[in-house]
Structure to design on (192 residues):
């Protein structure tokens, strides 16, 4: 018997980035969700540990395990509050940002909606990307963008990412409900 999987084209779009500070690493809980409305790009690259077993002059087995997911992105702006939340910087009495050599990034959940996919990376640590400043040349206009990067790490039980496709049958989640809070997903028990 052949089972046909219903494939649907996926529209590419990145509407918003959501994040929440991890408030307790032991109980894996998060604070309030905050939203950035001007993302430019977000790339996720899985990182695997791999091993091959060679025997009898050939490869007889192979194992691969997901270790983390590398995150790279850009936004049109990173407000002061985001710099403090993401990178562990401090806010100055004058309203600015103090960057210190001892700053360590906070663990956050970072989520985004792209087309019909709703995604939470449940524990990530981000770092700022290269910042470029230049004099405007006559007749040229350009925009400043704010790159960032980091790693999404597994929770205690190994969960790294939760993705919901709103086109799937039985899915009632919407971007408004999915990104209201950060919660660990629960597995369904397959029926025999």
């Amino acid at each position: 018997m052949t089972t046909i999987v219903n494939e649907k084209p996926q529209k590419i779009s990145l509407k918003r980035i959501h994040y929440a500070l991890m408030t307790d690493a032991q109980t894996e809980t998060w604070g309030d969700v905050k939203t950035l409305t001007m993302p430019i790009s977000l790339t996720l690259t899985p990182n695997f540990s791999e091993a091959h077993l060679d025997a009898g002059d050939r490869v007889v087995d192979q194992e691969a395990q997901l270790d983390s997911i590398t995150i790279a992105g850009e936004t049109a702006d990173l407000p002061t509050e985001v710099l403090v939340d993401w990178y562990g910087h401090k806010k100055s009495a004058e309203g600015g940002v103090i960057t210190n050599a001892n700053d360590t990034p906070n663990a956050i959940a970072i989520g985004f909606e792209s087309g019909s996919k709703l995604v939470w990376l449940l524990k990530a640590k981000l770092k700022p990307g290269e910042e470029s400043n230049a004099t405007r040349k006559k007749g040229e206009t350009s925009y400043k963008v704010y790159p960032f990067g980091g790693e999404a790490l597994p929770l205690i039980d190994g969960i790294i990412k939760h993705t919901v496709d709103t086109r799937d049958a039985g899915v009632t989640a919407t971007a408004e409900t999915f990104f209201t809070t950060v919660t660990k997903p629960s597995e369904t028990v397959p029926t025999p």
In short: The mean pLDDT is 90. The first strand starts at residue 16 and ends at 24.
